[in-house]
């Protein structure tokens, strides 16, 4: 009995404790404050709002889906081919360029010969004027003696008579009957060949380009040979001249064999049925034996393929008697057939035309009267003398 009573007490105690615990837990849950909701974050501006998952931004869609435009490659523009004027009549057009020689040589002599009294002092002045204009000593002596004789015969002289007398003597010394034809006529299927020689600084390559331009203006089919392989800019310079008038240019490596380039140029001329092949040679110092021998080699190599019809020596009219020494040495190496006298517009010494012809027995065939592309003219003695005398 006592054991039952003890068990009942234990059970009652457990029940009381359990009920009390539940009561306390219930009270605390009722008094606990409600949880505080965290503040909502402000909405992002439209430009910063992240796009929905899987969507693509408009910018990205443009850059990733549209390919860049294809770049247009412009075709190379061919240089415009110029049509040069013909060579005929050029010296008449350019005669005003001889004004410096006209003032010193022509007008100076006219003034002296028009004096009422021609004593020994006046004749000495006439002689000095002629020598100073590079006419040369021997031609000067011939002219002075002839003028003395003619003046004595005439007695009193009008200005027209003096002018006619002087023109006659200048023409006689220049040699109006010399053959000044450029030999550039094609030989059947073989082109004519012109070799251009001279020292550096005379305008040799420029003269070669101007000559090609002049011949193209006369209706010739021209091929150029850039055999001046020792001067870096020479081939490029000649290429520019050729491109302007549609003339093909044959060139070799810098420092290459000039004779090989000359030979190839002639072969190309025969292949394309050209009328003329013009070969620009390296500028030679007339005092260098080895270089002059090389020039002779160029001519010999060309002659294995064709005949050299013209050998033009380019001389600077402003160099005076030094140019004469150059001409003499060149004539010993190659058979000079004509002279191209450059810068004649820049000198008062137009008498070099007389002295160089007398020394070499070779005619002046071309004269340079300016820096323009069409300022190379066939030499006309009568137009030249008239320009000197101011007619």
UniProtKB/TrEMBL annotation:
Q: Does the keyword Protease apply?
A: no
Q: Name one GO cellular component term.
A: cytoplasm
Give the stretches traversing the membrane.
Answer: 6-26
Q: Which GO MF terms are attached to this record?
A: GTP binding; GTPase activity; signal recognition particle binding
Question: Per the record, where are the segments of Pro residues compositional bias?
Answer: 32-49, 66-86
The protein's topology relative to the membrane is: Peripheral membrane protein
Q: Where is this region: Disordered?
A: 30-86
The keyword Protein transport appears for this protein: no
Query: Which keywords belong to this entry?
Result: Cell membrane, Cytoplasm, GTP-binding, Hydrolase, Membrane, Nucleotide-binding, Receptor, Transmembrane, Transmembrane helix
Q: Where in the cell is it found?
A: Cell membrane; Cytoplasm
What GO biological process terms does the UniProt entry carry, in alphabetical order?
SRP-dependent cotranslational protein targeting to membrane
Catalytic activity reads: GTP + H2O = GDP + phosphate + H(+)
- According to UniProt, the name of this protein is Signal recognition particle receptor FtsY
Species this chain originates from: Planobispora siamensis
Q: Name the gene.
A: ftsY
